[in-house]
Amino acid sequence: MFDTPSSDQRRAGARATSEGETAVPAAASSAPDPLPSSRPIPDPVAIVWADPDGRPLRLVWAGTRWRVTDRPTVITEPVSWWRRLDPDARSAHLAPRTCTGWRFQATADDGRTCVLDVRDDGDPARWFVVKVYD
Question: What is the pTM of this model?
Fold first, then answer.
């Protein structure tokens, strides 16, 4: 049975799958400013399948299928509008936060394992691998 994607997922072009997951297609565009990486990332664009709550379950990245093999951790940042209210960042610890990505362990079909940081650039259809920990 197919689950119905949320309104945010529908706007992003998400598709429901038979396993209750939602496939969020990646767009072929330039990646956001990358974070420092432990190694070069040859192809940052990824297609991520998520559960109904938005947590990544699996992905296709750099021509390889990967399964999420631990509990993903949310990466958060202060909301953008807070900077106008606190330009000197003196109250940054009070700023509301928003989810900007996920960190999780991923295992490829061939047994390779790594930890990935994935982000979108404000559009849930655009996911990028921004950091890889071997």
Answer: 0.63
